[in-house]
Recover the amino acids of this structure.
């Protein structure tokens, strides 16, 4: 009888060890001609009111994409941002595009991170 209990516990543990669903959408395809910059942040970084759009305009748009390609983790819209610090390491990995573990080495020239505003 104890053998059956061990098998049941092992099966439950194996099911719990399955990789979690991505917490952040993967980035758009990386630039092959310019350094890639990733901004990962909470709500102060996204959308038309956050700093990410400004950084993209200054670095990417003003240089026609030749200086650098800028992306915001999860996009620039009304979602896909870091929010709280819960699951922070997993969110960063997902936003960087490494949920599958296949991100090329040194894919990002710069990665910025801010989070925690939603921890209150």
């Amino acid at each position: 009888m104890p053998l059956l209990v061990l098998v049941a516990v092992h099966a439950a543990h194996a099911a719990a060890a399955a990789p979690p669903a991505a917490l952040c959408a993967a980035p758009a395809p990386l630039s092959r001609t310019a350094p890639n910059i990733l901004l990962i942040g909470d709500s102060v970084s996204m959308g038309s009111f956050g700093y990410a759009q400004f950084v993209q305009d200054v670095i990417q748009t003003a240089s026609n994409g030749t200086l650098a390609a800028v992306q915001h983790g999860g996009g620039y819209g009304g979602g896909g941002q870091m929010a709280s610090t819960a699951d922070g390491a997993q969110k960063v990995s997902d936003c960087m595009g490494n949920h599958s573990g296949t991100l090329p080495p040194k894919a990002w020239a710069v990665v910025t991170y801010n989070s925690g505003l939603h921890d209150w």
In short: Confidence is low (pLDDT under 50) at residues 1-16. Residues 36 and 69 are 5 Å apart (CA to CA). The beta strands are 36-40, 69-72, 110-113.
